[in-house]
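Note to self: user wants both folds in one dump. Writing first protein now.
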Amino acid sequence: MVVLGIDPGYAIVGYGVISYGGTGYKPLACGAITTDADTPFDKRLRIIYDNMTELIEKVKPQAISIESLYFQNNQKTAIMVAEARGVILLCANLAGVPVFEYTPLQVKTAVTGYGKAKKPQVMEMTKRLLHLAKMPRYDDTCDALAVAICHVHAAGTAARLNMRNMGLS
């Protein structure tokens, strides 16, 4: 199973691609789509759209997992992130890839076993689970990898059944 995890944003969209074959995780790609603050917002959305479309075509995920939004203090920022997230969901829909959404609590629980884990704990466990030599450059990238791991955990039995049906386990 190949999963594309996404941490949505409009300045930085973190992404992480992992495969899971029954014996463990394998990181396939990770990084970030970035946009400059001085770029008009509509053009930033276009950059996200173009890059996400290209990424999906390149990695051919079987599932896309994305962190659900949670509102903080700044409503303007939340709305802009929601708009960028909408662009990402459109890309997935146009590519015909199913999307699964997870809350930060679900991601923390899947990766660390504790829903109130702090960011450094989640990052360290993500690094360990994926056997990464070092942390990715952006926190958003590590978050995206964690969201991908969360999907594999959530898919659980369904993923194992699918792999068995495909002769992979």
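First done. Writing the second protein, which came from a different request thread.
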Amino acid sequence: MDEATQKSVLSDATVKEAMRVQVLSLSAASPINHGIRQLIKYKSNAFLVNGEGGAPVGVVSKTDIIGAYYAGLPIESPLGDIMVSPPMFCSPGDSLESALDTMRSQRIYRLYVRNEASNEVVGALAYPDIVGLLYGYCRSCDRSVMNRKKNRAEDPDEMRIRVKDVMTESVVWSHDDDNLSQIMEELSEHRCGAVLIRNRSRRPISVISKTDLILAYARGIQSEAPARNVLASSRVISCQDSTFLEDAIRKMILSDLQRLFAWSEIPENIVGVISLSDAARVRSGSCHACISSRIRVE
């Protein structure tokens, strides 16, 4: 592959191309339970917090709400008590690579997009948005596996990235009789979005995600309650570790999933987890023909 071909697909991409224009915001005086309702209603992971003058002064994420749950804060506590300040911004015309560099160096999951002329917040950018953009590039690429029928001779399966090439192999486990506080500690320690739950026979039976925990908080379930009390809605959604990464990305995007667990040989043998953030760590999620290798999630 010559030097001209080895150009990142993101080299000319801007934040405006990937950002989502829907921006959630609440007043700093609003209670935590209002924030939970917003996150669930709009299937979001965070929202801006506005001060008295309406200007953004902080961000509250699911992680922050779980921290309040773990600390035993009343759910009527104001969002200003748990927000992270200040918000981090970029501009619509910024290069996507520079935004990724900021997200990586600041160890944050999202940036808010502010119009420099009006100072108005016009969008938000998170890793799933970037994966969605790259997926679009992949669909239109001549060497994409989407076009493998017409390019079969030039696009062998050996070029295609599989889930096992990208997945996180250290799966965080808990038991169904562990209490929710222990689950929250595991999420915090391993900086992950969900914990796989197994019974005492070591069989995976469910998943507890951050969403499940904030819903438990909203329902008044005590943090010392066993994990089995919140398992009903979260089944283990998985794929084989040899699945092509593009197929896994398609499943996550179309099914509005943040992650898939990966199994080897039999579905009960969970060996890893693949998330949209993992997918953002490599190329476009299709094949080795695409070399946007500057994408990193640390």
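Dump finished. Worth passing along: The domain at 15-126 is CATH 3.10.580.10 (CBS-domain).
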